[in-house]
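Worked example (supplementary).
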Amino acid sequence: MDNVITYDVETSYPYLDDDLQIDQRTFEAMWRLFCQIKDYWQLSVPETGVKSQLLVFMQNRIKIDLNYYADYKNAAKVIRELTYQLGEQAAYEKLFTDPSANLQPPTTHLARARQRVSNEFITLALAVGGFKTFGAKNALGFISGGNIKGQTPYRTIEEA
Amino acid sequence: MNNTTDVLIVGSGVAAAAIAQKVLEKDPHKKITILEAGSKVKMRDFATHQNYLVTGNLPYEFCQDKAYPTKDSAGENESLGSTLLPMQGSRLMMYGGSTVHWGGWSFRLKPEDFKLKSNIEKHINKLSGNYDLVDWPFDYDELESYYCEAEHYIGVSGDSHDPSVPRSKGYPYPAFPYTAEDKPALDALKVLNLQYSHMPIARHGMSASGSIHPPCQTTGTCKYCPFGARYVAANYIDDMMQYKDYPNLEVKTGIVVESLIMSGKNKVKGVRFHDKNISETESFELHAHTVILAAGAIESSKLLLRSIDAHWPNGVGNDHDLVGRNLITHPYMMFEADLPENPDGLMPEMDFPTLVSRHFDSEAQQLMGKYIIVNPSSSIGTRLATEMQSGKPFSVIKDEITGKSKIQLHVLIEIFSQYNNRLYNASKRNHIGLVETAIDFEQGPDFNPRIKQIQADIEQIFAAMGASNTRLKTISWRADHAACTTRMAESANKGVVDKNLKVFDVDNLYVCSNGSFATLGAVNPTLTLTSLAIRLATHLNNHVFAHAQQTEVEEAV
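After joint prediction of all chains, the assembly is encoded as:
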């Protein structure tokens, strides 16, 4: 048992300390979705380590909101159905671009898959380095490093 | 909780943390009790950081005031004057106080800010408003060494050679270099011969000296730093509790202080409070040798006002009807213009600004209201995630990045105290359990003409960048920097506390908040507040506590 007392720490959501395991099939589907995001927007995501970052990200999302466990399964199912209907590339394109997926609040399976999963993966893909495609050196969420002389972790005025 | 302590501090923000640390460094066994009405929120947690990253939701939003009531919502607090000072988002009622969400801009006031009344009183008839001004009861030089100590305490990265303000000691960490995003603004400032400098910012840097506070990793998620690199009082109090050997430091959350208990006119005995963990209605007492109100300008003033007894029929420290009055804050303006192109593809890479101009924060501008210009970290460029999530393909986004772009500059301006601008206790309680706030505020008649002057200055800067169509996008009077409501002065008929932050006519009661400022200048107040907190703790250590110990020894002999 954790010896840090936390019962009086207020939180707006229940915090799940035990892992709720994501099954391999769902995770592979989510990794495929992440790779499609990377390819569709030509993001320069690092070759190694990102798959485990995605897994940790998904576990963290479930940790603070159990609904994500269902959301990942929902997204996998939506992609399977779209792929069956449209073929793989068109399936992902619909998920990424179909305006109906912007429905607020997201009350369709497609809208939940877009807003709760795909859109968050876009932010994650940028945060792990995908933004570099567009010329920047640092971006929201990217752990760029400390302010060390000669190794400034963002584009400086001299680089503009 | 024992019902007696040496030092009782109401509030758990930067003032409380700095005072407690300074006092405990001198006497690690000093009994200090910090009472906080709000609760704790988990800090430095990676899952929470990622949640903020992808949703923009912060885990402490429930610690904010709610919006003012409307016909459709109950809301909180009361706005009575003709100028609305929003309270929602202006502060956090929680363990760590508003430092949990602050931006970390760590400016010193300038020497002339300590002499506002003296400097402008000969020309004040040029203004239309009726202002109630005072000088600080000491000058900049008195506070300078405490500014140095405060910069080291909260961990400021800044340019030690910045000539904007005199200094005797460098910053603990080097300035963050200007970003590429600063280029249009910085080039324009150069062309116009306007002074500029690095933003002094409370982000820890690399240092040869040992520190338990990690350096900034430039994650761009400063509102919830996963490392704790930005100064947050909650982290510092946690560190004092967990890593330091301070056996008599106690912090209690969920404690709503109702009133001060006086023992006669000149001495405070303690406080009366509700412990939300036990009962919303049952009242308890905590007695103390020294009481410090460090609950922000708003709550500290209201606590004095509702502490009524036979000796203080209008509230403690309020015989001259000054508590809660002379309220000021900083109007925050966002100016925007259009750039025809963005050839370098500049876009937000940081979550804090690195360029500021204090050119108009000068004695020459003091009569009209000094102001600073900040190049915000999101001044220019495309928000990649938003564009992608809207379904735009790569080629479109790529073109947008170098195409026409909006560009912004932000301004903070000084306004002057008016006696009729005030706050006081409302009748209801808010969701935290604190008595709600009524704010009666009206902007001065000189404000709108001043805005026109500023807009003309900003238009010149935008023009020098090649940007057109300058507009005032928003102006916010939000009460983030509420100040001067228990102001410091030479005498009780001009202010509420003396130069040592002691309430006039009460021997052992102090107010350490922005409320105790005599003036606010044009800059964020937190560094000055921290300096005042360290100065107060030094005064208590050297004069009050030392004297009390000596008296105890003499009595024992």
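Two points are worth noting when inspecting this output. The mean pLDDT of chain B is 96. The domain at 1-60+90-111+226-323+481-557 of chain B is CATH 3.50.50.60 (FAD/NAD(P)-binding domain).
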